[in-house]
Please model this.
Amino acid sequence: MRPTLMRSALAALAAGLVLSSASPPATAADPAAGVADLTHDLNRILADQRLDPARAGVLVKSLASGEELYARDADKIYTPASNAKLLTSAAAVETLGLDHRFTTEVLHTGRVAGRALVGDLYLKGTGDPTMLAADYDALAEKVADAGVKTVTGRLIADDTWFDDVRLGTDWAWDDEPWYYAAQISALTASPDTDYDPGTVIVSVAPGDGQGKPVKVSMTPETDYLKIVNKAVTGSTTDVLIERQHGTNTVEITGTVSDTYREWVTVDDPTGYAASLLRASLARHGVKVLGPTQRGATPDNARSLAKRESMPLRELLVPFMKLSNNMHAEILVKTMGRKVSGQGTWSAGLAVVEDFAKAHGVTTVRMRDGSGLSRVDGVTPEGIVTLLTALRDKPWFEEWYASLPVAGDADRMVGGTLRSRMRGTPAEGNVRAKTGSLTGVTSLSGYVTSADGEPLVFSIMLNQYLSASPKDIEDEIAVRLARFSRNAPADAPEIQPLRSKATEAEVECSWLKPAEC
Model:
């Protein structure tokens, strides 16, 4: 989805939910009536007219007994959107381990003569999505501290840990400028601690007067992007910041009355990373005489500086809470590299699919790791089967903690659910992965019922023509949080939970410039 549509969706996404007043309790209880009431209520929720032309798949099971509490077309294939990350993240933890770290290293094969390094300098990456400009600066500082002031040869960027296929299969070409569809490389950089690799934050602010050019800045400061500023200061902010297709030229148009930021992808993250290191070397008094080129680091190269990322157990938090597409794709290629020696999508996705099938997901097709592809396919039944099986993993608790938590305002706790289901029994209870594409929404995870019974669920809605019906997901999740097997036999019908969040097309986390 284009950023202009994302911004128009913000107000609706941030809106809360209104819960009907509680019904007075009845006396006699019928355990079977509780499940029957749940079925009745979920059927009513899914009878929403917005789903009339659409496809809806839902499955709810008890984790205590394994009983199926509700099913609607749960064995059919749906586009999962970011629910695909449930498979990718679990496969990554199993394959790489929670202690996996990415490395970025500066090496050489030349000889040091006084303060000169006679030979080439190599920058070798393994896909670290957490590399900031400050980290490249720290590498450069270590090179300078080693006594090197001049490199007589070239700066060679080694991104051969992955292949050179930058964009995923089936990704839309007009998504390329936006941070959620950044290019994948073994050498990259992120602008801040959300860790969106392969992007730069372009900020605009009002200029010196009405009709005057706006002020533009970048984070990190870099000459890798060329800015064409056509925007002017105005009475409203209606601005478009867009990298032109196939180039590193960013065109800014429209009017600006307040500060505004956009996360913009770069064309060729390898060159971007190398440019950050070269600039940092210069700041630390290290001059590289030769050009920047690409190549593989020789086996006999010696290390001058090395940086290790945070472990995967920590990276899971921004990855899953904020639904970071690029983390998913980097992990896919990393799995391929570890298992088959090939840092490719095909090798990595084979690992993910094999993991899924080994854990009961018999019907699955993965074309990427993030769910950005509309050709990805999985069933609600498969997702519930996976989520059930994961509870037996020794690493489950740390993985489970990475799921967004409904209604928790802390961005790194609530994540993409932080503005949803507030003031309901689902708040602080539902832990689930969201998913959003135009015409696709999904929510799958865990919830504890009113009786303390652990439940697992998957909701997938596809091919609707309305605004996003995420309120239907929320209503189902809240109803599960209220579920009791000891339902009073004469309890009145539960009134619908109404959500104001009916206009949004994308996850809150995709609305980068805004706080939601």
User: Anything to note?
Assistant: Confidence is low (pLDDT under 50) at residues 1-28, 498-506. The CA atoms of residues 254 and 516 lie 24 Å apart.
